[in-house]
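question for whoever is on the cluster today: can someone run the full assembly for these? two chains, 483 residues total. i dont have access anymore since they changed the login thing
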Amino acid sequence: MLRTAEERYGQEEAERLKPFLGRLSEAIRKVQAFELEPGDEPSGDPGEDL
Amino acid sequence: MEPHELTVAEASQLIREGKLTPTRLLDSILKRIDALEPTLEAWVTMDRERALSDAEALTREAQEGSIRSPVHGIPVGIKDIYFTQGLRTTMGSPIYADHIPEYDAETVAILRDAGAVIPGKTETTEFAAYDPAPTRNPWNTEHTPGGSSSGSAAAVSSGMCPTALGSQTGGSVIRPAAFCGVVGFKPTYDLISRLGVFPLAWSLDHVGFFTRTVEDATILLNVLSGVEHRPDPEPPKLGLLRGYYEKTADESVWEGLMDAADRLEDGGAEVVELRLPRSFEYVHPAHSIIFATEAASVHEEGFRKNPESYKPKMRSHVAGGLLIPSPAYLRAKRIRGVFAMEARDLLGEADCLLTPSSVTPALRSLKSTGDPAFNAPWSFCGFPSITVPCGLTGDGLPLGLQLTGLPYGEEGLLSAAGWCERILDFPKGPRTP
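^ ran it for u. tokens below:
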């Protein structure tokens, strides 16, 4: 993400974003580790799950 | 007692009985605002002229025996992300500093039709996200009132209005209500219209409101939802969530919750310990992915044109959100479905879930509005939650307990909250800083 941020926003802005991007990358890594089953379909708004 | 000290229910009854006029009530509220606003900075824009004119018309109606609803003549503060026709709506952002909507948000229109008087717009963090508003906490002005509904929470707490609208995407109603010692209520996702409320992350955004009593929260819910909820306060079965909550909470917060739980048990409630479901540890990362992706989508065009116009935290969320791969967003949404199902199962074992309302008491800072981590799971799955004040820290700052119920289970949740409020007996009068 940091590399993409450098390309898109420039090095200075990417440096400012670094801590937030670190947290986002960690969040993405974490959700990718969750074992979903075929029945766990994507939902739209929470209303569809309620 | 001065009129600004009255709850919604008390003022409403006096207006019905002809013992108080909307004009007299508004006059008292405006005097209170004049006295406290220089200290608390809870309001962005006042609308005195229209409020006075509406109050006069509503006074005449009441004198003719016509009362529109339980909020007839009641002043209601409106968070500055709700569109108000002809009245500046800034979203807490310099980008919208001069934005004057052409229509009222549906909730604002409902309130006006029901006879509410709108004195003005209350402060919000930028776009209801993380960059703080200038508002101070009435319990200690060196501390944050919480956010994002900072002005609404401080205004209700201090008696600058008996009730106010807020919104919650993470913890923006429950947390500031707890920090300011008032009741904060976030009904089920989509139960109340979000039309005309500027979105932050649309699948997480909830309308919510602040009051000083659970009875008043019921009045607001009934007016805004158009459904008559009739809670019947009685001892509930409360599902206490330890695990993550106990590990994460500040010591004073957890002690406050345990003390409150003991008092509730002594009063007749059943408190059972429940285990958080397997998906819970994925809830916060999934919430943050949905939050950033949707916020980025809302602001994509404006951000590309003028990124410098955004305050630092919002700018990070938009810039970062635009980089999130779509499979991660979709996976986060699938996790939401799983968590909602598991949370529903959990609520099969108790009337409602019991947790602290905030990780810490109100922080001694105006640079951060605090951590929404204890509220975000219930914004994530869309379940209704409410905070009731439950005590004070050793430093004299309020603490709240958060109750969460099943979707569309507002009546049961308000029954439990009303009973807890009665047992905990926290002072309901306005706080003078």
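summary bc i know u wont read the tokens: The two ends of chain A are 34 Å apart (CA to CA). Chain A touches chain B at residues 1, 4-5, 8-9, 13, 16-17, 20-21, 23-24, 26-28, 30-34, 36, 40-47, 49-50 (CB under 8 Å).
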